[in-house]
TrEMBL record:
Record's protein name: Portal protein
UniProt-listed InterPro entries: Connector_podovirus
Tree of life domain: Bacteria
Major location (coarse): virion
Length: 581
């Protein structure tokens, strides 16, 4: 996030929504829309299965958006007999929410690449104040609700998307999207830089958002007739502004183009043409293959087990059915009789001894083998959705469990989750921080920038529970090295000279994500050590002076004793020694 000295200027006049230039733009956008649809089509069949077997309430995958379609892509839950996968996806979503962007605990802080600069009190205070203001914006908006939806999409479909735009009431407003509703495109660095979405909107909503004058003739007539809930299909495209002109005063000067138009409308008029300073979309993927625009996740990995589980449940139900109501064998004489097998029914037959119903075959009165296979399928699904890691976290008291303890208990599992966390930071959280920071900076919602930070870049450092646990894995190596050196120093004290203790403490502190206020700055540490050395030197000098004074006193006392010792001939011991000297 670059820190600019002044906010960008605002458009001087409203954007034009019609004309030849707009008509050519809409033709190009419709061609791009068709191309993005074609690129998305190979994923649709898999997404439909994921919806049918795991997330029946999500996805817009059957047809293109249609006005008046009340189903909105929802499917009847006829293929789900066991909800293990649905619950596992919900558990993983909640786990990621609590572990990565919990509203109940800090999950990021701001810093600068220059650690010496970050330690300056003025800079640290400014970064902390900006972080606090951003947290208030996140809490006041629907950001956390949107993230919860994003995690569910990510766990199920392997790809999620959220549109984040400026809002005059809550600073930002987030719009979570579902699979099949949107299409994404990648830039040369394989990062999402394009989003097209098709959705249904009522005429009343369209008039409020875009202005009645910008709607089609049919939509305006419906509005005038009071049919405000009648629906139209709208397409929204966000992509790089390839014809950017910084000298213009409207959307043409901004790096990102944002266009809404009514699908199927003829002519050279758009509903709205705007621009963005930053790409306002996050589109994280759980995992991705090569240059694919869409990812795959636990839902796709678990799909074979999910299908097997539904088959086993259906088979078990048939077995139980046959056990409870087995197929019967009856004598031919009863072919014309009205036989009832209901409770308390009475059947009249000519010969009760021979006219009996009996099971066609004997069903074993147990389902243990099927139950075992069902349990294995359920466990496989839970493991795919990181159920063991979730259970480990849930089994501990969150108030007492530290990131280091998490890492110690689940180092192998955390390493498996590491690539997912890194990708999510890169494709979701980094853009979120950039988008919100930019909106707040342009809106004058940040404190004045310190002179030391002008021209510098601010970057996030993630301190969520999972981020800290991931970092804390590195503390194990530090503890082992320090322990080894400490043990060796008992036999060879000189080995301590190899250990840079100041650097070790700093690295350990950063890996744990502890507060920067816990450690003193280099200047303060140097001053403390200088004062300590001066105090030690002063104490040593005093000790030496006292020792010298004691020696002088002892010498004087000896001389006195010698002078008082008589040796005869009128001489004492001292004079005799001096005389002999």
């Amino acid at each position: 996030m670059p820190l600019d000295a002044a906010p960008p200027r605002q458009p001087s006049r409203p954007a034009q929504h019609e004309g030849r230039e707009v008509g050519e733009m809409l033709s190009r956008l419709n061609r791009r829309l068709a191309s993005l649809r074609a690129a998305r089509d190979p994923y649709m069949a898999t997404w439909r299965e994921l919806r049918d077997f795991i997330l029946p309430a999500r996805g817009r995958l059957d047809t293109q958006p249609q006005p008046g379609d009340t189903r909105r892509g929802r499917t009847e839950q006829t293929r789900i007999l066991d909800r293990t996968a649905t619950k596992a996806a919900a558990d993983l979503s909640a786990f990621l929410m609590a572990g990565m962007t919990s509203p109940a605990r800090p999950w990021f802080r701001l810093t600068v690449p220059d650690q010496d600069l970050a330690d300056v009190s003025e800079v640290r205070a400014w970064l902390d104040e900006v972080r606090d203001r951003m947290n208030k914006v996140f809490a006041a908006s629907n950001f956390y609700n949107a993230m919860a939806t994003l995690y569910t999409e990510l766990a199920g479909f392997g790809t999620g998307a959220v549109l984040i735009v400026q809002d005059y009431d809550t600073v930002i407003r987030c719009y979570p999207l579902t699979a099949g509703e949107y299409m994404i495109g990648l830039d040369q660095r394989l990062r999402a830089d394009t989003l097209y979405r098709e959705y249904v909107i009522t005429i009343g909503q369209a008039a409020a958002q875009f202005g009645l004058e910008n709607l089609s003739i049919g939509a305006r007539q419906a509005h005038e007739a009071g049919r405000l809930d009648q629906e139209i299909v709208v397409c929204h495209a966000i992509e790089p502004n390839e014809r950017r002109d910084r000298a213009r005063g409207d959307w043409r000067r901004l790096p990102w183009l944002s266009v809404w138009w009514e699908v199927g409308r003829q002519g050279e008029r758009a509903l709205s043409i705007r621009g963005f300073h930053d790409f306002p979309v996050i589109a994280p993927r759980w995992d991705v293959v090569g240059s694919d625009p869409y990812g795959h996740g636990p839902g796709e990995d678990a799909l074979p087990d999910v299908k097997a589980l539904q088959f086993l449940k259906r088979k078990r139900a048939r077995v139980v059915d046959k056990m409870a109501e087995p197929p019967l064998v009856a004598p031919a004489s009863l072919a014309q009789s009205q036989i009832s097998v209901l409770p308390n029914a009475v059947n009249f037959v000519s010969d009760a001894a021979t006219a009996k119903l009996s099971p066609l075959y004997a069903m074993p009165p147990h389902t243990q083998s099927l139950d075992l296979e069902i349990a294995e399928a359920r466990e496989a699904i839970r493991q795919t959705f990181k159920g063991d890691l979730i259970t480990m976290f849930a089994a501990s008291d969150r108030r007492e469990m530290t990131a280091a303890e998490v890492a110690a208990r689940s180092e192998e599992k955390m390493l498996m989750l590491g690539p997912v966390l890194e990708r999510f930071h890169d494709e979701a959280l980094n853009p979120v921080i950039d988008i919100v920071f930019g909106i707040m900076a342009r809106g004058g919602l940040l404190p004045p920038i310190p002179d030391l930070l002008r021209g510098r870049h601010v970057e996030p450092d993630y301190i969520s529970l999972l981020a800290q646990a991931q970092k804390a894995i590195g503390t194990t190596a530090i503890e082992r090295v320090v322990g080894f050196v400490g043990n060796l120093a008992q036999a060879v004290p000189e080995v301590l000279d190899n250990l840079n203790t100041d650097e070790t403490v700093g690295v350990y502190h950063n890996l744990l994500g502890a507060s920067p206020r816990m450690l003193r700055g280099d200047d303060e540490v140097a001053a403390i050590r200088k004062a300590r050395a001066e105090a030690a030197a002063k104490a040593q000098a005093m000790e030496q002076a006292q020792a010298m004074a004691a020696s002088v006193k002892q010498g004087a006392e000896g001389a006195r004793l010698l002078s008082e010792t008589q040796t005869g001939a009128g001489q004492n011991a001292l004079s005799q020694i001096l005389g002999n000297g």
